[in-house]
Amino acid sequence: MRLLITADTHVPTRARDLPARVWNEVERADVVIHAGDWMDPGLLDALEQRAPRLIACWGNNAGPELRERLPEVARATLDGVRLAVVHETGASAGREKRTAAAFPDTDVLVFGHSHIPWDTTATRAFGGSELRLLNPGSPTDRRRQPHCTYMTAVISGGQLGEVELHRL
Question: Which domains are assigned to the chain?
């Protein structure tokens, strides 16, 4: 199962549309994951039409229409992998410990907000599986990062593998 992971698209305020490479990834993906900050329902409509499956949440810049259509935390199980998608996780200091406690029944947590790519693993305090934390950065607004970015990943045999950060 091929995943496209994105966040902080800020369309149409930071860009008029997603970059062509990201739309190409939408066409190749089995599941598109978006960790919030859409700005306008137009991109949500377009992704719902073009993606085979969309798992998404709202972000801190979402207006009432987006908050009505999307959850604050989206959850899904993909080939046995328990996934949660949220926009904000707080400060980077202590993030692993904090999210491992807040998402005890999750294998992979996708988040956004910072525009800073992130790929770490959190060990749970009382044993059990580890929590993988992924932030794809932003494909349209690099802020202080050297590149705009997004991620792809593969789920196979009930495990997340082949996570790749792509620079635009």
Answer: 2-167 (3.60.21.10)
